[in-house]
């Protein structure tokens, strides 16, 4: 492997680790470079290695280190000492896992059939990624039986806009007409209220023997007074 290509690939280790995390990403990014800069053997190796388990070596090392440190505990240790041992063991395991991941990358680079072409392919991928919209984001395929139906929007489904409030009168005539209308409305309400109050006034009962007797006696007295006045008029005319 030539020195410039080796240095270029070593600088692109972080780029490959960040961008080619899944098999679909590798196919999308390195697929256009196949048969031009990347051979079939290098493409298949990249497709198998870049999304591989080496990406989780640091996490695996952290867990293994923490478990190993906890297994070394003694009964005489306090909580602080036990926590320190577990933390140091987890940190050591993470460092070992990261180092082993880097070693796996170097082993992958050393096994390339055409490292110069692979370096040119990575450079082309970086140029394409710098152009906005050049490489669309991968879309997840969905089963047709579980896809959510999309219904077209209709005019009836759109929310109706609230009615605009009536404009306030601006001219003097408008203010006068508004005042007259208000007075007319108030007078109508007053008439209705007065008629309602009149209807609520209790009327004298139509039946009842005591009330009828008083009413008949008053009527007889009035009739007697009237007859007496008529008699006086007749006598006065004679």
TrEMBL record:
Superkingdom, according to UniProt?
Eukaryota
Q: Where is this region: Disordered?
A: 134-219
Per UniProt, the ranges with Low complexity bias are 152-161
Q: Specify residue ranges for compositional bias: Polar residues.
A: 138-148, 180-189
Q: What is this protein called?
A: Uncharacterized protein
